[in-house]
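Recap from last week: sequence in, structure out.
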Amino acid sequence: MDDGRHRALVRGVRILESVAESRSGLTVTELAELTGADKSSVSRLVTTLVDLGFLARLENRKIVLTGRILSLSKGFRQQYNLSEIARPHLTELLDRVNETVILTIREGNFTVSIDQLDPEHPFRMVPHVGNAAPMYATAAGRAILFALPVSEQHRIIDELRDAPVEHPEVRLDRDSWARELELARTRGFVWIPRSDDVERIAALAHDRNGGPLAAVSVYGPRYRMHERIADLGREARSTAGRISRAAYGIRPGEEFIA
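Predicted structure tokens:
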């Protein structure tokens, strides 16, 4: 593809994005201002997108999306796989921290681990993929929990009050919730000290609205991790941010509002 066609393609996509982000459509003049292209180029591209059925012109000269744009979402639903999108970033994290890394998502009041990568250590974590846990009982679960509206956090904590947990010290009530939430916000990640010899930290990958998409965790034996908690937390948080951007196709330099 030559440079001219490449530029036209980029401008066409930006036109679609600009129209999609508007409330009631945009004029050609407004599109030119938003995309930085001249009016004649925008007009030609709009005409092409109208001919293809993705845009329509209204009587007030506004350009709007048509229902045909929804046909693109069919492929998204069929092809979107968060584990596959996150895998390269988890692999990079594994290479940097040399400890087990896990990707976790929400399922109702619980969380489920959907991917796990292990280092070449003699001491490794047991497989977690497919395991479900009450949302407040794991570092990943709390990272997800703390991103929800406060009223929803309270509801989940109340409904899980009698849920069985492996380690009683991980239970949350309203008082301990407030303390742990503040600690997580101060650190930028979640760390749950427990009575066993394993350290667990987790950071949140946000969705486009600032809610929870998934959590990235680092697990390992205390003797290897304890002195590195802050560094590992920053690594997990950085990886979670990259997964958020990859999952939503955020381009380098483009602001990700979360």
